[in-house]
Amino acid sequence: MSPAVLACAGFARCPDCVLGRGPGAPAARRGGPVSREAAEQMRRAGGHRPPEASTSDLASGASELPGAQTAGVSWDAGRFWVPDSPPALGACSCHAAGGFKAPRWASSRLGGHRLPPGRACEFSSFIFILRRRSLAFPGIPRVQAACAFSLGVGLWVVCSHLLRADVPAAVGHPVRLRVLHCLLELLITWGMILEKLRICSMPQFVRFVHDLVPLKEDPDVVVTDLLFGTVPVKLYQPKGLSCTPRPGIVFYHGGGAVMGSLKTHYAICCHLCKKSGSVVLAVGYRKLPQHKFPAALTDCFAATTHFLKSLNVYGVDPDRVVVCGDSVGGAVATVVCQKFLGCPDLPKIRAQILIYAQLQAVHFQLPSYQQNKNVPLASRDFAFYCWHRYLDIKPSWKSTVLKGAHLPAEVWEKYRKWLGTENIPERFKKRPYRPVLPEPLNEAAYLETSLALDLLNSPLIAEDEVISQLPEACIVSCEYDLLRDDSLLYKKRLEDLGVPVTWYHMEDGFHGVLSTLDMGCLQFPCSTRILDSLVHFLKRL
Question: Is 253 assigned a catalytic role?
């Protein structure tokens, strides 16, 4: 703990100054009592250390601090009292005294029995912080409590999620999915605990942990970290030389703006680059909780524009640029295609690849939203959490939104032709599903949630003249995915308007399965099939 940090915190004082004896202490306190209780205790003790101080090693150690026999000290179960606030800045007597001897209970932690001048200030300031935060020193009971609490949290997560997770029978390797689900829930649970303690937010904690996994370098791919303005990106280029410009892929990772990063999708981008011979640009956009809508889209627009304007620098064929994304990244890819239709000064996007994409934020009672609402990795509760945090909507509107009371009847009627369940093939309605009619409008909910109708959040409901101009699409959907019907509805809209669509449906797939690529024993065969399908599509462009 450096003196600079302590000074910033307002705690850089030596024991004399803290206890009211040093030259840095106010004149009113110097050498005098700091509290009535301490003065009374000193009076009863005859001006010496109270006898109960010898009842613990902590108390006897603290008595060795300079000034410990002044009225500034009060003894309570082996702890010593310090003022409620640090005294004013000033010179410290410990500098002139040549340091002081550390207490016995702290000498082993400080690496010696005598502290040099200046370190005395740091040590006493550390004591001040501990006492003010009511932390017992040396803290062994607290460590034990922390271990017990951690074990309890782990056991609760295992019992609640590992054994009781709603894992579909048709998913290959169900035990792997249970383990993945349990690990994710454990991260989220710890993140929520830390958020309640105001240490850090849940999204920040989850991203911090999943980015600790080391990256596996591929000898056939050159990876470069760049900044496009303030937007971090990773550029993946095949190592071999090419006589002709290569295809280009702009990749937007998923994660609901809560998790996911350039590191979590490193293996996916490496494989795409290597197997398709393409130059891949992965965009790292801003996320929750600090950055809400439309920060992520702004970053993706800026990075994509910069890349399209400098394709020759990276050896990319301007006639073969593809946008690609999974989950919320698929939504970004769709919005980019729609947004760049009116930019004649930029190269035209050749195709869009959408992997279990989130394409609308309006209808939460589609068949897949009911059938797969509890499937691991992307439950309806977690999807709603991402939705309300990203759009900055109160979570109390959840039941209203699920009942459809957040939109007027005329809005539902307008978009029913695109969002109606009659547009979904019957074979996807065989599993339990109950049609839900929207309830009467809640005007307060409509005013707060109307942002969901923005085409930047729901590209699926764009007008026909926009959809009809979009480039060729490759759509990947998974049977056990909450967002499956988003892909099916978007596929139908594109086909009805004459846009070529290549569709791959994974009967044993679930949301996020592609991210298990290169996870070793936790990898699913479905992830390899998805990657091979994408490579096949790219090679025939």
Answer: no
Q: Which residue in 124, 125, 276, 327 is the catalytic one?
A: 327
Q: How far apart are CA 13 and CA 485, in angstroms?
A: 63
Report the distance separating Cα 15 and Cα 3, nearest Å.
14
Please count the structural domains in the chain: 4
pLDDT, tens digit, 9 for 90 and up, residues 448-505: 999 999 999 999 999 999 999 999 999 999 999 999 999 999 999 999 999 999 999 9
Going along 327-459, which residue ranges are E strands? 351-355
Active site residue 511: yes
Q: Which of 98, 132, 166 is the last residue of a domain?
A: 132
Looking at the fold, whether 201 and 221 belong to one and the same domain comes out as no
Instruction: Give CA 321 to chain center in angstroms.
Output: 30
- CB contact at 8 A, 419 and 461: yes
| 75-84, 249-258, 270-279, 401-410: least confidently modelled range | 75-84
pLDDT at 164: 78
Q: Which domain holds residue 82?
A: 3-132
pLDDT at residue 37, rounded to an integer:
59
Full DSSP string of 109-121: HHTSSEEPTTHHH
For residues 349 and 409, state if they share a domain.
no
Q: Which of 210, 253, 363, 511 is catalytic?
A: 511
Q: Is 291 assigned a catalytic role?
A: no
Cα 90 from Cα 120, distance rounded (Å): 15
Task: Report the distance separating Cα 518 and Cα 374, nearest Å.
Answer: 26
Q: Find the catalytic residue in 317, 481, 485, 486.
A: 481
- Assess whether 337 and 222 both reside in one domain: yes
